[in-house]
Amino acid sequence: MTADEFIAVRQYTESEKYAIFDRELMPHIQSMYNFAFRLTQDEDDANDLVQDTYLKAFRFINSFEKGTNAKAWLFRILKNSFINDYRRKSKEPNKVDYQEVETYYDSEEMAGTSQTTDLRAETVQELLGDEVTNALNALPIDFRTVLILCDVEGFTYEEMAKILDIPIGTVRSRLHRARMLLKEKLKTYATHMGYDTSERSEDEESL
Amino acid sequence: MTPESSSSAEAEKVVKKEHCENHANCMKLIQMALDGEASPEELEHVRQNLGNCLPCNRGYNLEKAIKQALQLRVEQKAVPQSLVDCIKSKIHEL
Ligand SMILES: [Zn+2]
């Protein structure tokens, strides 16, 4: 937990605490559960993580300024709980050191080859939800996280920077690399699933 | 697609360039534009590239398709009512 995470900014009364919890925090539980499930890939772990996060949020509710961005505040607590309590014991298949991956994809050579992927927009549109989900789940956790926050949950770069405790420039470059990786995964899926990934004209299309 | 947009697309095809000198950078700007994070100047730059560059056009369509797939087709898990109830009761026990 970063030091400034739970510094009290207010002194709410007991009834105010419950009111804020019900009106501002609980409405985000569906998004929170989805985020937790995407991170842990396990229903029981997602349950525990969401519960821990909400209990922590209630305990430190004085550090939340009423009427501000509750969703980003909750996501940040959940992300930190995940890193501190779950990540070590999780069944995460991609135990790749993030720094290592980032350095690898930082190389110009890698950037060059990924840019020229011949994946087509039409192919992506044909992919099923399951295939898109599997491709996303196959990414190392830090890359998966930025895509969930940006594209699935619709957070701004600034909100993501706060949730992840990283500078906006890092949000941008991590998103960019995440998308390169996702394109490669989608391309692999599309090829395996027998989607035609090469150029073709309309009249060649048949059932 | 409207009739005029498809016919103008046909007309543009002839003049659009096949190779993008600065594609890696273009793709960064295109993603920022799709994320709603580009400045007005950057948006204008992207708009111009889309008008005259085929690789940028394809890149834009692909990024947009991927973003939409993530927004709309990633499986959503319904939060169990038991979890909601459990959190509420634990809060009131405190
Ligand atoms: Zn271009």
Describe this structure in words.
The complex is a heterodimer of chains A (207) and B (94). Chain A is mainly α and 207 residues long. Chain A has 2 domains: 84 residues, Rna Polymerase Sigma Factor, Chain: A (Orthogonal Bundle), CATH 1.10.1740.10; 101 residues, Arc Repressor Mutant, subunit A (Orthogonal Bundle). Chain A is 65% helix and 0% strand. Chain A contains 11 helices and no strands. In chain A, α4 runs parallel beside α10. The termini of chain A are far apart. The C terminus of chain A is likely disordered. Chains A and B meet through α2, α3, α6, α7 and α8 of A and α2, α4 and α5 of B. Bound molecules: zinc ion (ZN). The site of zinc ion (ZN) has 7 residues of chain B, from α2 and α4.
Helices and strands in order, then pairings?
The complex is a heterodimer of chains A (207) and B (94).
Chain A: H1 14-25, H2 29-40, H3 43-59, H4 70-86, H5 98-106, H6 108-115, H7 121-126, H8 129-137, H9 141-152, H10 157-164, H11 168-192
Helix pairs in contact in A: 2-3, 2-4, 3-4, 4-10, 8-11, 9-11, 10-11
Chain B: H1 3-13, H2 23-34, H3 40-52, H4 54-73, H5 81-93
Helix pairs in contact in B: 2-3, 2-4, 3-4
Bound molecules: zinc ion.
Please supply descriptive tags for the structure shown above.
heterodimer; A: 207 residues; mainly alpha; Rna Polymerase Sigma Factor, Chain: A; Arc Repressor Mutant, subunit A; 65% helix; elongated; disordered C terminus; B: 94 residues; 5 helices; binds zinc ion
Within CATH, the superfamily of the largest domain in chain A carries the name Winged helix-like DNA-binding domain superfamily/Winged helix DNA-binding domain
Helix tally of chain B equals: 5
Shape of chain A: elongated
> What does the overall shape of chain B look like?
elongated
What percentage of amino acids of chain B are in beta strands?
under 5%
Give start-end ranges of low-pLDDT stretches of chain B: none
* Mean of residue pLDDT values of chain B: 86
Mean pLDDT of chain A: 83
Give the CATH topology of the largest domain in chain A: Arc Repressor Mutant, subunit A
From the N-terminal CA to the C-terminal CA of chain A, the straight-line distance is: 54 Å
Instruction: Classify the beta-strand content of chain A into a percent band.
Output: under 5%
